Structures are given as C-alpha cells and as structure tokens.
Amino acid sequence: MYKFDAVINNKFIEGKERLNILDPTTLQTGGTVAALDEQDIDNAFLAARAAFPAWRDLTLIQRINYLTKWNELIAKNREEIAKIMTIEVAKNYKDALTEVDRTVEYITYTLEEAKRLEPMAFTGAGYDVQNKYAIYERLPKGVGLAISPFNYPINLAMSKIAPDLVMGNTVVFKPATAGSMTGSMLGKLAVEAGLPAGIFNVVTGRGSVIGDIITQNKELDFISFTGSVDVGHHILEIASTKDVILELGGKDPVLVLDDKNLDFYSDQIISGAFSYSGQRCTAIKRVLTTNAIADKLVPLLKERIEKLTVGKPMDNADITPVISPKAADFVQSLIDGAIKDGATVVIGNKRDNNLMAPTLMDHVSLKSDLAWEEPFGPVLPIIRNDDINELIKIANESVYGLQAAVFSQDIDLAITVAKQLETGTANINGKTQRGPDSFPFMGIKDSGFGVQGIHETLLSCTRLKGIVINYKNPLTK
Ligand code: NAP
Ligand code: G3H
C-alpha cells in the first residue's frame, strides 16, 4: 500500500488527517495521501508567494536547468509512476506508460518553446511616430493554481505546471483525489530534483472539502482548471481571481458522411470512443450518420468491440474499471434510459460493479439523455438521420463544443461540414483527440474558456509588459 505526503515549501506534510485512495479495480484502499486543512493550504500559498521574486529573477536558462533535472527524474521513474496510475485511476499499464512518456516529451518541448518566446519590438513608424521604440516582453503572472482531473493524472498536471514554472511563476497544485498519489509523487521528485523551496507545492484533499478554500485564497493570481463543467463554473463564480482558464467536458460527435472507407472509420471510432474506457474529454461520445451508412457501419463497430478485452489495468486490458461504482451507475442510468426510449443494444450492457462491458447502442432517440450527456464511460450511441443538415444541427445543439470529427472521402463536403461545426476543433478523417500537445486545444460553449497547448499555455501564464522609449534627436534644434 502506498503512502504519500503533500509538499509545501519543499517539506513533506503528512496532514492531521489522511485520505484513503480507492483502487477502482479491487475497490480496496490502494494508498493514502494527506488530507490538508485550511492552515496547510494557506502555508502553501504563502510559500509560493515568498518564492516568486527569486524564481522570477533567475535567468530562463537557470529555470530550464532546474526543470530539466526534474523531467529526467520523471523519466527515470516512468514505470513506478505508471504503476501508481494503474492503482489509483485504473488506467492500463501500457497507456499509463504512454502518458508518462508523452508528458516527458511535453515538458522537453515546453522548455524549448519557452526559449523562442522572444519579446516584440515596435518603432511606431506605421503611425508616423518617429521618436519611439517599444519593447513588449512576457512576464510571469505570479502564483498559479493548477487543478487537474483524475483521467490524466500526470499529463494534465504537468501541461499546466511546466509552462507556469518555466516562465517564472510559482505553483500550488491540487490533483484530483483519484490521481493524488501521482500528484504527490511529482512533488516528491521535485524535491529530489532540488527545485527551490516554495516554487512548486502539492496540496491534497477532497475538492468538496478544500476546493473553495483553495480557489478563494487571496495570494493566487491565476487558475488553470481541467475537470467537469459544474466544478469549472463554480470556480468561475467564487474564485478570488478572474484570471481563470477552464478545460471542461465534451460530447464529441463523429459525423460519418459516406461508406467509402468504413473499415478505417470504424478503427478510428472504436479507438476514439473506448480508449481508457471512454474516460477522455475528447472521447467520441456520439456517432451521427444516415440509415444507409449506419446499416453497414454498425456490424463493423460490433466486430471490433467483440475483440476488446475487459479486465485489469496491470493485464493491459482495453477496458478497465471506470473510476468508481458511482460513475458506473451514472453510465448505466444513461443506457437504461436510452433503452426505455427505444434504443437497441448492439453489444454490451453488462457490468460487474464498475467494470463495464463496452456498449454500442443503435437508434438512440434525441429524447434520451444518452444523446446529450457526457457519460465518461464505455458506451457509444448511434443517432440516425438521413439529412446531413440535420446531422450538423444535432451536433451543434449540444451544450458542449470541444471537438468533432467528420469522416468523408469527399474533401469538399468534409471541409464544408467541419467549418459549420460549433467546436474548438473539428478533425477531418481522424478521431477526436487533444494530441499532439503542441496543437492549440480549446473548447467553446460549456466545454471551456481559454486556450491551452504548449505555445498557448506559455502565453496564458504570462502577461505582456511594454517599455516605450521616447527620444528626440539632439543634433537638430
Ligand atoms: P471534477 O470532478 O470536476 O474534478 C476536477 C478537479 O476539481 C479535481 O481535482 C477535483 O478534486 C477538483 N474539485 C472538486 N471540487 C472542487 C472545488 N469546489 N473547487 C476546486 N476544485 C474542485 O472532474 P473529474 O471527474 O476529475 O474529471 C472528469 C471531467 O473532466 C469530465 O467532465 C471531462 O470531460 C473533464 N475533462 C476535460 C478535459 C479538457 O481538457 N477539456 C480534460 C480532461 C477531463 P477531487 O477529485 O478531490 O474532487
Ligand atoms: O481527457 C482529456 C484529455 O485532454 C484528452 O487527451 O485526446 O490525447 O486523450 P487525448
């Protein structure tokens, strides 16, 4: 059983109370972390505030050198981190390792990209101003609060933390409870790497208990949050800063517009819908297509679902237990509701508590919650309509607007439809996905606010500061 402590000012804090971390596979406690109180959290923010000036005033290369050491330790501990992730979030070991490797690459890329954030220079000449030079450089905003969700415990943590730190901010990091052993491990490695005290602090505890205390702390300058719409909107209402970036949920549709490459489309749809048991913000969460295409597509999807393995994360099963029995109950309620409304179960709809068989539902009615709600589990609804304009309308009627995918060999049609989809990103002939991490990533409507991505995050954690130099020519009177 694992035991991890929080990290404040480079000190390990056990906490007056401890929080049990559920292993979703055994439904037993997989380890414990500190359950911090208000005083501990205050201390974390005070430490981050105190450390800010010295960290900001290091050269960029000095900060990069510190963070490189940390990144090397993360890479060295890849197996251990991946194993912890299999225990606390039930991600299969292979995917957990991929997540760690992807994160190491993310950090490396971020440290390189930071070097290219050159100041901008202006002469004002375009406005017939002959006596000014202006330099605009990017300065850190101060103390950043990073809050991550359970589903990518290291990637969605470090994709905030690394840019914040390299640009000279200091950070208080609140991992999801399921994911806080991985988060605490990052703190432990930061201390081992010799990061200056106070620049990176890990605070653990249930969001329902400490969340409001954290987001209302007066020392924080900006927040980067990834998680559910409800919590994101709540933070926006109560936070002590209005500088908030939100990456929230999704109900990504895929529009299949022809039957010319159905094997390829099916492979993409299955991988997009069922990786990590559908617990990805960018998972394909509905298929929109015509009756004629659906009649050919459904058997191909079924064939592929039959081949997915269901089981334990350490056995590298494709489908592993969803994060909790409560999450499984929610997915089940969506399936049951859709069946009542006339949908057919093509395959699946079996469960052993929170281990759910991958489920494909056809003829899902627009009346059903499954057509609109984000299940965050292994279920894929098919919604049929013979009018392409109606399919686009259904795609856009969602409150979400993260990503969408369009499959068609008619590139004119694909581009035309992709342009009409109200999402941050529309993918043509490829599944919905965040990566590569260097691409800008953003949701509209309830899916979020602000833009992430390696370059974009470096911008969002900094502010422009201009120095305008006025001069006159002393040689002319
Ligand atoms: P969640 O329940 O909203 O939790 C997210 C984070 O917020 C956790 O660290 C949680 O801590 C914390 N939290 C809870 N209450 C809080 C409060 N009052 N104040 C501050 N923080 C609070 O989401 P989740 O279940 O972990 O993740 C799944 C959701 O995230 C899905 O909707 C998914 O689509 C979305 N997501 C979006 C993206 C994206 O990039 N758009 C990426 C990944 C996931 P506790 O765990 O301790 O409650
Ligand atoms: O859960 C949300 C992640 O940002 C998705 O990333 O599309 O690479 O799985 P991904």
UniProtKB/TrEMBL annotation:
InterPro entries: Ald_DH/histidinol_DH (IPR016161), Ald_DH_C (IPR016163), Ald_DH_CS_CYS (IPR016160), Ald_DH_CS_GLU (IPR029510), Ald_DH_N (IPR016162), Aldehyde_DH_dom (IPR015590), ALDH-related_metabolic_enz (IPR051020). It holds the Pfam family Aldedh. It comes from the Bacteria. Keywords: Oxidoreductase. One of its GO terms (molecular function) is lactaldehyde dehydrogenase (NAD+) activity. Belongs to the aldehyde dehydrogenase family. PANTHER family: ALDEHYDE DEHYDROGENASE. This is NADP-dependent glyceraldehyde-3-phosphate dehydrogenase. It comes from Mesoplasma lactucae ATCC 49193. The lineage of its organism: Bacteria, Bacillati, Mycoplasmatota, Mollicutes, Entomoplasmatales.
